[in-house]
Design a protein that fits this description.
7-stranded mixed beta sheet, 2 domains, 13 helices, 19 strands, alpha/beta, Aspartate Aminotransferase, domain 2, 4-stranded mixed beta sheet, globular, Aspartate Aminotransferase, domain 1, 38% helix
Length: 455
Amino acid sequence: MINGVNSEEIQSNINKLFSSILKEQQKYTAIKAADEDKKHLTEEKLAEYTKNRGKGFFYNYLSSGRGHGPFTELIDGSVKLDLIGGIGPNILGHSHPLYIKAHLEAACSDTIMCGNLQPYQEAANLTNLLISKVQKSKLRNFWYTGSGSFANDLALKLIWQKKDPAYRLIAFTKAFAGRSVATQDITYNASYREGMQTAVNVDHVPHFDQTNPEGSAQRTIDALNEVVKQHPGQHCAIMLELVQGEGGFIFGEKDYYVQIFEWAKAHGLYIWIDEVQTFARTKELFAFQTLGLDEYVDIVTVGKALQCCGTLYSDELNPKPGLIAGTFNGSLTALNAGEKIVRYLTEGNFYGEKGRMAELEHTFISRLKHLGATSCKGKITYAGGIGTMIAFEVGDSSGPVTTKFVKDLFDRGLLVFTAGSAPTRVRMLLPVCLTDEQIDIALKIIEETVIETIN
């Protein structure tokens, strides 16, 4: 939808540009090695970039801006099959028609960024759409933030103001909440906050144990009882990812969360769900909807696949004037694209037990397990996940072995990433544009790489 200047001529030119751009991007449809005369470019450019930013890169990857579907080209002319999507945002893949449309339509507006003081229709439209998708919950408000970490910071501020002076938070082992001053304390990995002073007092309790599902709830509740005993009256909320992304896609069953949430409500604690990575990627738009937990959630943070970030919260958590503000809601392109993505996914055949998310989950997990029982026996030792969030383990599941493996995949044209420690898993955030043929290609590369590189 064009909200800026518009005319028959503009619309005609947009249509022509759209067709021309899509036609050119559709040329990138297969894995390809680097061009001989360009092989040096990626390393040279990244060396300069590394020097200027002071830190290196996991992959020798610098995009050319060209690609289509799950395929993306680097500046050296190589083309990769992308199954990590920028760690989540590119849920539709590369150069999806909706992305192109959003860019072109946003060019008709008079600025680039939409702000809180002077909002645009794009921000209002996306807010209204999100609220309409959570009517079974008590979530009635949405506020934009600049990143997923800032969405979590905002959630903490809203909770703190209502629970003042009870500021202590309960989070879970293997949690990841971001890298801001506040969220680094919520994040479980202590190495992510080395040399930092404590800004938030957080008690971490055990999350769902995939190896002992029956005993998980009691184990967590015992730990919860212990922390409130140690710090009576000091806690404000329980914060958790229903699917722990950085932990390796660890998630529990509905009954587990119901027991935890009932405990939280009995102790007067708010329930804060981090869906920055899970949003749009499970078998419903929100992971809490997939697990049927609508009635429990008080505040939910979103980002990544939405193309912008923010916090959904109940009327009870609506803050006093002055607590929250900010310059940017997001770029007009991102806000426009966010609305298009939500409509596309919720109006198409993506969600539910027979939707595309469920199909991708079943296909990848079942085929990875098959490899683990046949040609890769003893080498693929675990495969699991939910929706388009798929993980598996190779070899001894150590960090060094898994890191080397994903870099071997990269060299063979497949882009994935790692997650977790003890075990470290191969992580995939699948684009929903994948065809059966492309899935076959990806799994063939995984199989061959496992056989040839994992002892």
